[in-house]
């Protein structure tokens, strides 16, 4: 590959986010020279075809960062915490997708459609990409906020199992296969748990097949989870409203790919549904509005089965309920492995160079 162009190193290249990022490269501008896949020991030596070139997966090590201009960390937070300083010391700018450095005041949180200039100032050598739950809703909220000024947000997310990586998808498939063909399962208390008792460790705190789990992340404060607080803090940062009231409930659902969210957004001034649809449609926010009549059950809605594999965020069921003249309801879907992770990180990397 041409060495006159910058080198992009991808840590976690064989994971679900890493593979999604590599699949996006042919759709982007030709700005990179070497694309260097880096992964854990079990993937070292694997060959990957990247933009028509045969590439060897390198072991995560100090040497792997030599000559890299930008490093994308598509890995869990503990791995990012250990290796990000190493990459920065080697002279690279790190795009962190793990959420580990979001609270650091020297690490800008960037969504290219909202605050692209923030990517230019990174005193710690790190730029953070928000969580997938935040990324699917912040574009719509930012567009509406610019016109009517948000005063509060209530959100319930419905998060796909690949939020937990490949292990999440494997677990859902295993549970579904174990339960399939058993007539009556799921109709008695405890029967699903009993049937799944021999499947071993799970990345989820409860059965995910035939179920929804009102818990994503680790315990935090006031009964919230780390995922819920991350959405609150990231929205406040990106919208530049540090005290914005944000109430979030994160729910794990048996969907392989694509997060969804039900939003209740309240503003400082009265807002009309049709005006909200117009602003969402006309803004440069990567949002595609599916604006049906809301009167019949056969309109186009944003749904994971239709949105999976797509780059934009899809918003629909835009409503204004009686008694809420300053509030708008909407339902949003976005592929958590594309715009929810890989695409935003890649866009930020392009901004950095």
Write the layout of secondary structure elements.
Blueprint: E1 8-11, H1 16-24, E2 35-39, E3 47-50, E4 53-56, E5 58-59, E6 70-73, H2 77-89, E7 93-96, E8 126-128, H3 132-148, E9 150-159, H4 166-179, H5 191-195, H6 226-239, E10 246-252, E11 259-267, H7 273-282, E12 287-290, H8 304-307, E13 313-319, E14 327-334, H9 338-352
Parallel strand pairs: 1-2, 1-6, 2-5, 6-7, 7-8, 9-10, 12-13
Antiparallel strand pairs: 3-4, 9-11, 11-14, 13-14
Helix pairs in contact: 1-9, 3-6, 3-9
Overall description:
The chain has 353 residues and is α/β, with parallel strands linked by helices. It has nine helices and 14 strands. A six-stranded parallel sheet has the order 5-2-1-6-7-8, sandwiched between helices. Helix 1 packs across helix 9, helix 3 runs parallel beside helix 6 (226-239) and helix 3 (132-148) crosses helix 9 (338-352). The mean pLDDT is 95.
